[in-house]
Amino acid sequence: MASPVLHARPPVPSAAVPLPPRRTRLFALPEVRWAALSAAAFLAALPLDLAGAPAWAWGPLYALCYAAGGWEPGREGLRALRGKSLDVDLLMVVAAIGAAAIGQFLDGGLLIVIFAVSGALEALATRRTADSVRGLLDLAPAKAARVANGSEEQVDVAALRVGDTVLVRPGERLPADGTVLDGASDVDQATITGEPLPAPKTPGDQVFAGTLNGTGALRVRVGKDAADSVIARIVAMVEEASATKAPTQLFIERIEQRYSVGVVVATLALFSLPLAFGAPFTETLLRAMTFMIVASPCAVVLATMPPLLSAIANAGRHGVLVKSAVVMERLGAVDRVALDKTGTLTAGTPRVAEVRVLPGCSMAEAEILALAAAAEAPSEHPLARAVVAAAREQGLPIAAATGFSSEPGLGVRALVDGRLVRVGRPRAPHTPAGGAGEQGRGPAEARRTPEEEGRTTVVVDVEGAPVAVLVLADRLRDGAASAVAALARLSGTAPVLLTGDNEAAARHVAAGTGITDVRAGLLPEDKVEAVRAWERAGQRTLFVGDGVNDAPALAAAHGGVAMGRAGSDLALETADAIVVRDELATVPAVVALSRRARALVVQNLVIAGVCIGALVIWDLAGHLPLPLGVAGHEGSTVLVGLNGLRLLRESAWRKASV
Ligand code: ADP
Ligand code: MG
User: Residue 519: what pLDDT?
Assistant: First the structure.
C-alpha cells in the first residue's frame, strides 16, 4: 500500500490564476463618448448663455451639444421611419430641434443631454450583462499543447479535433472538454459546477474546458470540439436568451407603434388648433413640444426587459441557465410542479449493489455483468453507467456490442458476441424481483424487497431468457426535501413524482422528500400525458427531469427544467432552463426570482403610467416648463430602467432562495 502522504497534494490556491477581468470600460462604448461630449458642450454653453454673452460664443457649443447627442438617435429614427415605423428617439430629437427653432436653445440642449446620458446608461447596463456572460468564454485558453507522435506543438484551440491528445501543465486552464488519459491532479471546476473544492482527476475522469488545473500534469483526450464544450454551450444559450423577447415586451412594442403615432397626431393638434384660435406662437409650440416629450412611452418600453434580463444574468451566476426572457417570465407563473426520480431527485450516480443470478441459470455472475455492461456501454442512462462502472471495477472485459438500440424508459438491447442481450425494466413491474433462493427468509421486517428500500431493479435477458436481476442503489440529492417543500409553497399545490421506475422504489424515494403523489412505471408518453392533463385543467406545470425519457414531458410542460450535469443532451436541448450545478435548491430559487421579475415589470409599468399621466395632465391643464417636463420624463425612464437592474444584485438571489 502506498502511504497516503504520497497521494496528498497541496491544496490548489485558487487565486493562482486570476479570472481575466473583462468588463467593458466606461468610455469604450460610443454611446458613452457621445453623451459625454454632448454634456460637456452643454455645460460650457450654459454659463455663457445665462451670463448674456453674444450668440457666437455659445451658439457653436449648443450646436455641438445637439449634434453629438442627437446624431445617432436621429439617424436611427429616420431609418426606422423609412421602414414605416415610428421611433421614440426621433420624437425626442424633433422636440429638441423644435425647441431650438423657437430660440429655446437651453431647453432643447438639456433634453438632448439627458436623453443621451440615459441612452448611454442603458447601453452600459446591457453591455455589462453581456460581459459577465462573455467573460466565461475567456476562461478557456486560446492555445493548447497538442501531442502527436511524441512531439508537442502549440495549436489554436479551434484547431483541436475530437480524439487529439493535449498536455495540460500545472496551473493551466483546460483547453477542451475530454477524458484524462494519464496523470493525476486536482482540477478547480468552480466555473462550471460551482463546487468550491477542487475535484481529484485520474485517468478515465471527465474534464471541462475553462476549468483550472492544479498541481499535477494531465494528458487529456479531446472529447468535444471547442464550439460544443459545456462552457461554449452555456455562453451560446445565454446570448440566445437575451436575443429573444418576452411576450409582455412584444405586446408593448406592438402598442408602442400606434401609441407613438397617436402622440404625434395629438402634438400636431395641440399646436395647430390653438394657433387657429389666435394663441401666441412660441408658447403654443413649447406646450406641444412638452406634450410630445412627456407623453412618449420611453419608460413603458423599458419596463419589461431589464428585470427579466437581470434575473437571467443573476440566475446564470448561480448556475441556472434560463434560455430566454420568455422563459424567465413564464417560470414564475407555475401552479403545479412535477419531478422525475432517477437523476433528478436522486443523484443519478447509482451503483450496482447486487447481482442476483436467477435460479436455473448456468451463467456466472461475472459473465452476466460483463454481457450487461457491453450492452449498456453505448447508453447515456445513469443506470447504464452504473452497470459499466461495476464491470470495470471487477476488471471484466467489456466486449464491443453491435446493433444497439434503446427504448427510453424501458431499457436497452444489443448483440454481444452474437447473443441478444436485453437490460431493462422488469416486464411485470409489480412482481417482486430477484427470486433467487429467497424461500426461507427471516421475519417480516427483513423480508423487504430491494424496491421497498428504494432500490431500482433491472433484469438482464440473454437470448430472450431472464438470467439475472441487478439491484441498483442511488442516493437522494442533498436538499431534495427542502427544494420540494419550497416548490410546494411556491406553486400552491403538492409536487408530484413521475417516474419510469417501479412503484415501491418510487414511494421510498418520495417519502424521503415529502412527496405523497407518486406515479410510477410511466413510459415517456405517460409522463407527457400527465403533464398535458394538468395543462388542460388550467394548471401551468413545471417539469424537472434529466433523461432522454423526460424530453417529451419537458417540451410539453409550461416550463421545463433539466438537470445539467446528469442530464442527457436531448433533455438539455428541450428544456427551457438548465440547472448546471445539479443543485435542486436552485429550482425554487429561480421560480421565486421569476416571480420577483414579474412583480417588478408590473411595478415599472405602474411607475411609467403614473408619471406619463401626471406630466401630460400637468402640461395640458396648467403650464409645465419644458425643462421640467424633460427631467420628469427622462427621470421616470431612468428610474424604471434602474428598478429593473435591481435583480442583478446578489441580495435578489438570496431573497429568492429562502
Ligand atoms: P426515471 O423516470 O425515474 O428517470 P427512467 O424512465 O429513465 O427512470 O427508467 C425507468 C426504468 O426503465 C428504470 O427503472 C429501468 O428499470 C429501466 N431502464 C431504462 N433505461 C435503462 C437502461 N439503460 N438500462 C437498464 N434499465 C433501464
Ligand atoms: Mg431520469
Answer: 96
Same domain, 469 and 507: no
Phi, psi of 614 (to 5 degrees): -65, -45
Mean pLDDT for 466-472 is 94
Tell me the C-alpha distance between 98 and 90, whole Å.
12
My answer on whether 394 and 369 are in the same domain is yes
Question: What is the rounded CA–CA span in Å between residue 163 and residue 168?
Answer: 15
Q: Is the CB of 382 under 6 A from ligand 1?
A: no
Residues 469, 378 within the same domain: yes
| Cα Rg of the chain, angstroms | 32
Give 346 Cα–ligand 2 centroid separation in angstroms.
Answer: 9
Q: Are 211 and 189 in contact (CB under 8 A)?
A: yes
Q: Please give the distance, rounded to the nearest whole angstrom, from the Cα atom of residue 388 to the centre of ligand 1.
A: 15
Q: What is the CATH number of the domain that holds 192?
A: 2.70.150.10
Element (H, E) at 459: strand 456-462
C-alpha of residue 473 to centroid of ligand 2, in Å: 14
Q: Is the CB of 341 under 6 A from ligand 1?
A: yes
- Nearest alpha carbon, ligand 1 atom 15: 425
Residue 138 falls in the annotated catalytic set: no
> What is d(CA 142, CA 80) in angstroms, rounded to the nearest whole number?
40
Tell whether 437 is covered by a domain: yes
Question: pLDDT tens digit string along 483-517?
Answer: 999 999 999 999 999 999 889 889 999 999 999 99
State if residue 191 touches ligand 1 by the CB under 6 angstroms criterion.
Answer: no
Percent of the chain with pLDDT over 70: 87
Question: Each residue of 420-450: pLDDT tens digit?
Answer: 999 999 876 444 444 433 333 334 444 567 7
Cβ–ligand 1 distance for 410 under 6 Å, the answer: yes
Name the strand (E) or helix (H) holding 632.
helix 626-645
Q: Are residues 504 and 447 in the same domain?
A: no
CB within 8 Å of 357: residues ≥ 6 apart: 363, 364, 365, 368, 436, 467, 468
Q: Contact 558/542 with Cβ under 8 angstroms?
A: yes
CA of 470 to the centre of ligand 1 (A): 12
Structure confidence at residue 345 as a pLDDT band (50, 70, 90): very high
Of the candidates 49, 87, 186, 340, the residue annotated as catalytic is 340
Please give the Cα distance from 514 to 532 (Å, whole number).
Answer: 24
pLDDT of residue 26: 73
Looking at residue 465, its pLDDT comes to 92
- Closest C-alpha to ligand 1, atom 7: 409
